[in-house]
Amino acid sequence: KQEVTQIPAALSVPEGENLVLNCSFTDSAIYNLQWFRQDPGKGLTSLLLIQSSQREQTSGRLNASLDKSSGRSTLYIAASQPGDSATYLCAVRTDSGYALNFGKGTSLLVTP
Amino acid sequence: ETGVTQTPRHLVMGMTNKKSLKCEQHLGHNAMYWYKQSAKKPLELMFVYSLEERVENNSVPSRFSPECPNSSHLFLHLHTLQPEDSALYLCASSPAGGGSSYNEQFFGPGTRLTVL
User: Fold this and answer.
1) In this predicted structure, what is the pLDDT of residue B103?
2) Rounded to whole angstroms, how far apart are CA atoms A50 and A65?
């Protein structure tokens, strides 16, 4: 069974800092990996999707990398802003089935 | 309406009530999903429908009953729930079901369910 772990569980940084969120997974046979953002009490917003054949994806200040062989992905946020405060979730889709296997998330607080 | 919508956004029900959650996607997708998000736990997949057929059922208690009348609508019928079923229920859709790696899932805002 695919296990997804996100470190750290919570992070507080001052505005302007660059930061890295980590995601690891136990089964490297994946179709793709997706990073989401969730604001309190709200649904999930898809940020980036990396296919298993890709090494990274970029969208604005966000860059996600994927190292399938080591079972790791990182989400890099450049020049963080208070509006980036949210929970960031990593989810992996494996070869077997339709499900996305989620980590518990990293709760990010960016202070002015 | 755009994207994935869910109604109601909040629901409080007693253990003997029967209620239904509704999800509608306006993206032309062929697969729809129900997820449960409990406090301090990762999101858990409950049901998957692909082309209106249920393709995955992850050992969900029978007090949860899904229905997918067409590719745009998904329901979750609830009856005789327990307090531990209180959670955020999220609906998602994707362009295709399994077998495709280009399968980004798009989520609705969720229904916050409280069972008294």
Assistant:
1) 74
2) 8
B106 interface with A at CB cutoff 8 Å: yes
Edge-to-edge strand order for the sheet containing A62-67? A4-7, A19-25, A72-77, A62-67, A56-59
Side chain identity at residue B114, one-letter code: T
By the CB < 8 Å criterion, does B75 face chain A?
no
What digits encode the pLDDT tens for the residues B30-48? 899 999 999 878 899 999 9
CB A50, CB A56: distance < 8 Å: yes
Q: In chain B, what residues touch A102 (CB-CB under 8 Å)?
A: 42-43
Q: For tokens 């179709």, what's the residue? A: A31
Task: Quick: pLDDT tens for A69-98.
Answer: 999 999 999 999 999 999 999 999 886 667
Q: How far apart are CA B6 and CA A21, in angstroms?
A: 30
Q: DSSP letter string over A26-47?
A: S---EEEEEEEEE-TTS-EEEE
Q: How far apart are CA A102 and CA A33, in angstroms?
A: 10
